[in-house]
## 1
Amino acid sequence: MPYAPSLAEHNPPAHTFFPSSKKDMCVSSGNFLIPCAKKRAMPKRLVIKDLERCVGCGLCMYACARRSAKSPEIGIDRSGILTTSLSGFERGATVIFCRACEEPPCVQVCPTGALTPRRDGGVSYKEELCIGCGNCIRACNIGAIFERSDGKPAVCVHCGYCAKFCPHGVLAFEEVPA
Amino acid sequence: MRARTKVLKIDLSRYKYEAEDRSELFEKWLGGVGVAVQLLREEIDVKADPLGEDNVIVFAIGPFTPAYPLASKTVALFKSPLTGNLGESHAGGRTATSIANAGYGAIVIKGTSKTPVYVVVNNEKVYFRDARGIWGIKSSPTAGRIIAEREKGRGMRTIMRIGGAGDNLVRYACVTTETYRHFGRLGLGAVFGSKKLKALVVIGRGSYKPADAGGYRKVYEKIFRTALESDVMNKYHLLGTPVNVNPLNELGALPTRNLKAVRFERAEEISGEAFAEFNLGRRIGCSHCPIACIHIAVLREPYEGAPYFYKTTMISYDYELIYALGTMLGIGDRDCLLKLIHRAEVYGLDAMSTGVCLAWATEALEKGLISEKETLVKLQFGDHDAYLRAMDFLVDQPNDFYKHLAQGVEKTSDVYGGKEFALAFGGNEMPGYHVGYATHLGYLMGLRHSHLDNAGYSLDQKIEGEMTPREVVDSLVKEEMWRQVLSSLVVCFFARGVYKPETVVEAFKPLGAETSEEKLRELGREIYVEKLKLKMDMGFTLDSLRLPKRIFETETPHGMLKEEFFKEALDYYAHKIKELTG
């Protein structure tokens, strides 16, 4: 049987679906806000458990499009995660999403503050501030920010919703060292 | 109904394209085969030459693509160069989701390019690319890789391409998508070749909203859980379709050496269990399907005369390939069989038709109907090297014999004789089951002449006692009618246990459509009739059907078959057709 997580497993607490508020941030050197480590001992993030088990089904992409309970979408326009073959499926498949860099280049080049560091690592995205300049898409070293049809970015905010639908145990939403 | 309802029409003769919203068509006919039949009817001259400019290809997806998992098939309709009649072929891979995400419910290809091209659909735009440098590359994976590296859209696209068999108009050439999935049967690859179309790339990254947000997520989760947690798809999770090899062999229903036998003494060696134990290297899935039924074997071969050099090839295997290139050709060595499967994959040949053609040629050579002057190599059951060379000849067609054999076993036996053991039904080479009356009636009556049209092979395995000819016909037609609904929803037939009628009805609700099991069944009947009428307008008659004598000479699990049963069944079917079509 394939790995089938129960619905309860990896079900993130509701608050992780929303960008963290500014009061959880500490001001650091430069113009960046960085997360305060003291709030929670172990932040939760979307992680890869075993990439070799990826079959390239893309259920994570479609889950990402449904992540908003109020406004789910059918399709991948807003998906912040991408599955692809490794130059052809004979070499298998891989999954690409934000790896929560310590100093996110995408945040550094965002001119409007739409992208800010997220408390638990990774970034928060405020769509209403985004002008769709595309700087973040070009700045991401690993090509993990995607362009939506309206020119704005589709980026993983580590909500963990997709992990519930990964049928083969590739993705998990779990605590990682801060 | 919330679904993709735009139709993109691409004209290769004029290098033009247009898109049009056809909501009314999708409201009435759902999508997939239901819509494709109507679009083909609108666009094609029923008398069109299958390899001429007038042939038309329709690709269609369904209302559940990509709203729900396991609904990622694309239906292709065209005029078949193999049968000269309606051609229909379904493929998985990423094709359906890419077409949906690009914003379309269907894509129509018309005309013929003057020079080799490949076409890229990138959301709302279409680009015609020069393919002169790629034309003639015999390897479908190589052509695919070149295009993949030149084009954008990694992970969001499908690359439907042909290999040497399509370029050279082998009438059973397939179109391959994502390396391992195929529009396999009835020669879509040759239609691509005749249009000078090396590949169709579709890149899609769009979305739309369901009518009922909460309901949509709930139904999605229910379908997802059913697919994973129940055992309705277990067969495909584990060993894959080759799980059938051993049971069919034990049953005495596994066509062997051109159906001279129904048990293969080396079946165990090429069974699903053996492949899984010794060769299975990876499993992959179609887009938006959690099952991952695509089983890929590893073939590790040493280079002769070069110590410590190996080549490692990843080869997708399935039941029908093991039948056609294995038992039918008497190949019981897994590595040899994998080499044959790989050669078919590289050239883009339909493995089933290829195996049946080569099995016929072997027996014809045995019987002296043809000589090595024709076959150029001594074909013998069990000799995989000879078959590898014969596959090269099918693609290169160096003499008249291979020119004929590249047109299928029906046409070849017209010329050289040997009709009685030419295993084709309605002009389409036989699938891998010899279980009983329903099996062969299924091939004959099925509108694609495929075992998947009505699953007669499965009915034969379920029958306890006897069924009358009428009961068999009624049962097959009923099953085929429901399958028109599934292939209009483009639900994978392997997932038919997940998409029961009540689930289908429930799944439509959040998309803003009300229906009922009764309405769906009625629609299935209507689509069946529409397709049958189109087939008849293209020249199909029951009288033109031929039963190969061989099926009466080899025992089935239901005993020796009798011609009278078929006669009675077909008379009744003729009567039924009249009733259905008015």
## 2
Amino acid sequence: MAQAILTKAFYTLISLAVITNYALVLIGTMARIRAKVQGRIGQPFYQPYIDIIKSNAKRTSISHGVMFFLGPVFRLAGGLGTYLFIPAVFGSVIFSNFSFAGDLLLVMYFIFFGQLGMALGAGESAHPHAAIGVGRGLAQMTAFELPFILSVVALAAQYDTLSITGIVAAQQGGFTNWAAFTNPLAMIAGMIAFLGMSGGNPFSVVMAPQEIPIGPPTEMQSSFLGMLQTNRAIFNGAKMVLFMNLFWGGAAHENLLVAILIMVVKTFFIYLYVTIVGASFPRFKTEQSIRFFLGVPTVIGLVAVVMQMV
Amino acid sequence: MAPTDTHTRRYQESGAPADSAVANPDPRTITTVPEDPATLATPDVRTVDGQLRIITEELRLANEGLRPEDRSNFCDHPPEVIKPFRAFWENFLNWARSESLWVLGFGTGCGAIELRPLMTSRFDMYQYGIQPRPTPRQSSVFVIGGYASVKTMKRIVRSYEQMQGPKFVLGLGSCTINGGMYWDSYNTVNRLDHYIPVDVYIAGCMPRPEALLAGFMKLKEQIKAGQCEGANRYAENFEWYKANQKRIIKNWDMPDYNW
């Protein structure tokens, strides 16, 4: 029993290390791609590592209270919780994490959990920009959750399961079995919601430096910020893996290295899609974002659900 | 009439520069903080120009610029010198600090216009690990963009103190060195490092963006060499800096240290 627990803990650490490092490199690479679009050379791909080391190497830090301290902790717990209940590689013992029969519901809860914890932490910093940022963030999140939930409901109805592993298993046997092709409406609604979830343009009003500087983490500094930067990598990695599993067939191969390579390629293109949209479109105001998400994507999601019922 | 206006009028009448009252021109060779803590109790150390105390007998900040009922809302702990780690580990951390310079986006003077082109594709400061940051809490570099008026000085002090150490200051333009073309102005400070510690000066009026980039590179070298201990210098000579600041900022209605 103890050996099984220790083995699982060891596997979890490997899985976390892989996704954290991969997501950090991916974030750095995408910043470089964005720079190329703008005609710049751009930062080194390993810049996120240096930034995290720098933040944690600060000699002083300011806390505004217990909740301020717990805000980044909740955020990190949200990121870890999201990732740890998603099977990153289908069929792999090491990368199956803690997936179980109803994990999809729990993952959707964890996506929300970190944001709420951060809202409380940012609230205690008492900075007006943090409060405005939290208001904008939660409003926008509530809006993009709707098409996201509808697409997930459509998938759950299609495959008759709330297990992510079950959904991935049902998509095996060729790319024509991917939910993106068997249920394109759910995929469109979900991938549009993913743009909002990623916080890139045009839905970047929450944390854009040019808006209210700089939203919820205005007062976060030093190791608090370092924790948020680490979580950004884990959370982004978790969301990309989730969408790969839901719509793009997951990462499955009998050879683990090939399966990881499949995951890398698929998540790279999922992130590239966010980057291309971000480089192409200007920023929405909050009310524009909400109107957008509650409009066409929600209707598409509704149609996807109705089509599963008839 | 507001205190600042009174101050301004006084210097207009005397024709003296705003910071002409500073006695010793070299901040690195003097300190009013005695080495022996026991002597800190002497009242002449604590009294600045006979106006406000900075450190109380309990070695806390006096915060006498605040209303008594407001004082409990602010931290009264003076800044402390925090020693660096040793050898390899500190060198490694200094490397990370030098390769991730986050610049506080606060244009304090006309020179701030030279900072903007660095973000564009022509100069692209991101490739050197330099990027702007909109909040002092997350910034590590403060670029003083040209002249610092007395009114701006108050905001400069607040912003500088809110930055978390180690923090670095770039003085951009001749105005930060000796006042430049504003050397005899009634409301512009002449020498920036009388008020906050400066790591690198960039001479010129105005220096080109290339010169600013060269200044950043010089700053990187100094950080890697472990020579940029401005935050510690500020804490070490805290009363000296504070005394100089309070000589020119007459309407001191903020804490003595802005945590």
